[in-house]
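Folding Query — how this chain folds
Tokens — whole-number codes for backbone shape
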Amino acid sequence: MLRKQNRQQQLMRICRRAWLTQPETTPKWGGNSFLLVILLVLGLISLPGRPAFGQQDLLAPIKFDWPMLTNPVVKNPPIKFDYSPRLVPLWIEALQQSEAGAQRRAAQAIYRASFHEVAGLKNAVPHLQAILANTKGNRSARIAAAHTLIRLDARDSAELFGKVAASGDIELCLLIEPALAAWQYKPVQETWQQRLQDPLTNEGLVLLAIQQLSAVKMLGIAPRLEEIAMNENAGIAYRVEAAKALAAMGQTPLAKSAESLLKYDKAPLVDRLVAGQLLQISDPIEDQSQQQELFALLTKLAQDPQTAVARLALQALLELQPQTLVDQADRWSQSRDPKIRLLVAQALLRTVTPQPDRLRKVVAVLNDAELDVRVKVAEGIKELSQEAAMKVIFVDLLSEELDRGPEFWRSQEQAMILLVDLKHGPAAPRMAALLEAKEAEVFATAAWGLRRLKAVDQLPALQQRADQLIVLLEKTLPEENAVDDVNEQLGQIFQAFGEMKYAEALPTLKRAAQKTVLPLPC
């Protein structure tokens, strides 16, 4: 019962905030009597499930667009945190103790305090360095000290870190060596190069060395990395990591080396993976003969049955000749790998021209099963729509998407978000028709879109939908997930009433404000 009351209080608060928003929109309210109803209007939704603060699975424009939480703006006084001046001296004293637990806890406390701008933490650096330098000390204390030194950006610890790296303690090396790379501490690079000499024995340290040499872009090591990548007797991890490092440093494509790995029809998977990395393109290639050579290798590699290999080839083709992906879009867009489908979408966006047939292929990707693909394509459409000719066509295509069947709910959601962003008011009637759609991503987004477009002429449709939901909730308890969806849509509808000062909604609000007690399911 207490939980139910708490939910009701939260939803009452939603209502109050929704109706206190102040945009000047007609029609005007008739008086102040509505404020009493405002306090209770969402009480009927106090059902199992969370209040309508934006679903995690809906996109950011909806998730964070709740004017009831931000309008009016409440300016809170700034909060100033004060810390006892005895804290840092106390932690330093603990660091000087011989007991490892005290050292570790003090180091961890300083680490946490660094996020709160506690003054004087730098004074602890020499003591933390002493703990790390003690090779016979407790490992947990040394690791905590290293963590804290990195957090404090104690760059004068670089020499000490270099000595620790040379000792080969893998646990500490994994922690401090990325910091040394970020600090551009050159003496440690010799240690990293030594690890790459034959025989390659300690896999963890060798891979770490390759990664850090790549991070500092030490181009002089590229021949050795290519040698490792091409060594058929080397471990798989060594070869793949070396090839990745070459690509990351911009030392690819290496067409001849890749071709030698692909000379057999049934080359091992590791050879194909390495070849894919060696064919990555970092800079535009002007030489036509080199382009043709790379194109032949990449188109062959793109046919690989392993999507990890084919993806590398398509990624390079996207840089070399994106039209190739467009020409075979029907094939690659059916791939089970969402990253491959995204590459095809990126190729479409790069090569598109202001022609309906071409742009329709881009809009079709908005119905992709992977949310990340849909969002990135929507971002691309938004960018292309800055051009007037593109915008006109996209607006028509996105509007048409709203008339499609329920199986296109993904693209309908994205289309509404884009149409709102493009401020296309004529789409409002189509959005109103989707208020009763099957999927929450559609019906909640439709309510949000109508509110954002200030679609005054669609307020009766919003009220009709609210009435339907109120009747539904008076009769039964929907499943928990359905309650969340209803909350999402009702929250947007009631906020629309408040923002547009829709006085005709008063009967709906009064009915919604009535407390309905339903038996809880057994």
User: Anything to note?
Assistant: The radius of gyration is 31 Å. Residues 94-185 form one domain. The first helix runs from residue 2 to 19. The mean pLDDT is 87.
